[in-house]
Amino acid sequence: FVQQTEWSLQIMTQRALEAESKVEKLKQEIFILQGELESSKVENENLRASQMTDPGVVKHNIDFALQNLYKIIMSANWSIRQLTSGAQSLCFVAEVLKSTGKISEAEAEKK
In this entry, which stretches build a coiled coil (predicted)? Predict the structure, then answer.
């Protein structure tokens, strides 16, 4: 039983480390996305400042901005899903560790 518990703890530790790694990757991606968002904001401000009157140019700029915005939205949605998955994994690990602790306490009381 002790070996099985130790094995379970090793697996849970591995899962926790993987979840932490995912969280770090997602933090990096969020940082990149924030940079892209700031870049898009600057581009938007530049477009506003230029006050272009040519409808074709304005339409092109709007299409370009929309494409970038959709890319950012899709990437953010993916990041949120990954972060949620990582958080759920961490909750699962916490519950298993909690259960393992209770089992260990019960075994100690039997002795």
Answer: 9-43
